[in-house]
Amino acid sequence: MAADNGAKELELTFRFYSLLNDFLPVWKRQKEIKKAFGKHTTLKDAIESFGVPHTEIGLILCNSLPASFEQKVIDGALVSVFPHFKTIDIGKLAPILFERPKQFKFILDVHLGTLARYLRLLGFDTLYNNSYSDEQLADIAYAEERILLTRDPGLLKRKKVKQGYFVRAIEPRLQAIEIIREFHLKEKLSPFGRCLRCNGLLQSVNKIEIKNVVPPKVCETQSSFLKCQHCGKIYWPGSHYHRMKALVLWLKIHAY
Fold first, then answer.
1. In this structure, how many other beta carbons lie within 10 angstroms of the beta carbon of residue 163?
2. Lowest-confidence region among 3-7, 60-64, 77-81, 207-211
3. Which end of the chain is more exposed for a tag (fewer CB within 10 A), N or C?
4. Exposure string (b/e) for 206-239, b if CB count within 10 Å is 16 or more?
5. Which residues make beta-bridge pairs with 110?
6. Cβ neighbours, 10 Å, residue 3
7. Mind listing the pLDDT tens digit for each residue in 24-39?
8. Where are the domains of the chain?
9. Which residues share a beta bridge with 79?
10. Spatial CB neighbours of 17, under 8 Å, sequence gap ≥ 6
11. Taking all residues of the chain, what is their mean pLDDT, rounded to a whole number?
12. Alpha-carbon distances, residue 35 vs 54, 70, 119, 127, 206 (angstroms)
């Protein structure tokens, strides 16, 4: 980063801990790294220059003292950067960089379409549209207070993104398990409550109301139906339902 108006740059030492090393080149992991910045650089910008999104950070220590994202760099400082603590409440010990979400509403980027369906299957309010631009994703996440899930670390660096998570797993089922564990969702699962196609809420509907919509054989053999309140799609417990039920059970078992 260039110095401000030719002024001398300030050199700091950074150390990233635990999962934050995922964002660093192999040769920079688990070690102290020196880097110089202009005096007006914030810790947020300095940290993100290493490729680590601010949404992944739970605690910053500058010379062993808690620091905020807005704090300016200090010459010669040692900056220790930690991920979110899952079992320790550090709220009284350090500035809250970002409040962990109280509601679990998600928005997913273009690479996570199957994960979006799985989260809807588990009952979570999940927006997904493969035509969303990065700017739209950030805007919607900010406006609706949604957690942005992505495979693109650069997307999480946008200032508007307050809640976000970089999904490490590649396979969708493993991605779902990762999200359940990361956000402690095991006790919040509510399967078959949302439309897999549009995210709308499902509601029980009388067979008489939809007899002209579903195939006659389905009406004859099925007695339980759900209808999406947004797009109108009808669901019933056919063979596809049993496969989805098996998937939900598999996810529950492996997420514990």
1. 22
2. 3-7
3. C
4. eeeebeeeeeeebbeeeeebbbbeeeeeebbeee
5. none
6. 15
7. 999 999 999 999 999 9
8. 4-83, 106-188, 202-255
9. 14, 62
10. 80, 81, 82, 83
11. 92
12. 18, 18, 40, 39, 66
Q: How confident is the model at residue 5 (pLDDT cuts 50, 70, 90)?
A: low
The arithmetic mean of pLDDT across residues 5-29, rounded, is: 93
Average confidence (pLDDT) over 80-109: 79
* Residue 88 in this model has a pLDDT that exceeds 90: no
**What is the enclosing helix (H) or strand (E) of 37?**
strand 33-37
Return all residues near 138 (Cβ < 8 A) that are at least 6 apart.
148, 155, 158, 160, 161
Paired tokens of 202: 């499902």
Q: Give how far the C-alpha of residue 15 lies from the chain's centroid of Cα atoms, to the nearest Å.
A: 24
**Cα angle for residues 219, 224, 225 (degrees, 5° grid):** 80
**19 in Cβ contact with 83 (< 8 Å):** yes
Question: Is 146 a residue whose pLDDT tops 80?
Answer: yes
User: What pLDDT, on a 0 to 100 scale, did the predictor assign at position 91?
Assistant: 64
199 Ramachandran zone, left/alpha/beta (phi>0; psi -120 to 50): left
Place of tokens 């300095």: 46
Return d(Cα 242, Cα 224) in angstroms, integer.
14
Look at residue 4 and tell me whether its pLDDT is greater than 70.
no
d(CA 43, CA 22): 19
- Closest C-alpha among 244, 225, 39, 2 to residue 121: 244
Fold designation for 4-83: Ubiquitin-like (UB roll) (3.10.20)
Q: Which residue matches tokens 């005096």?
A: 39
The percent of residues in the chain predicted with pLDDT above 90, rounded, is 80
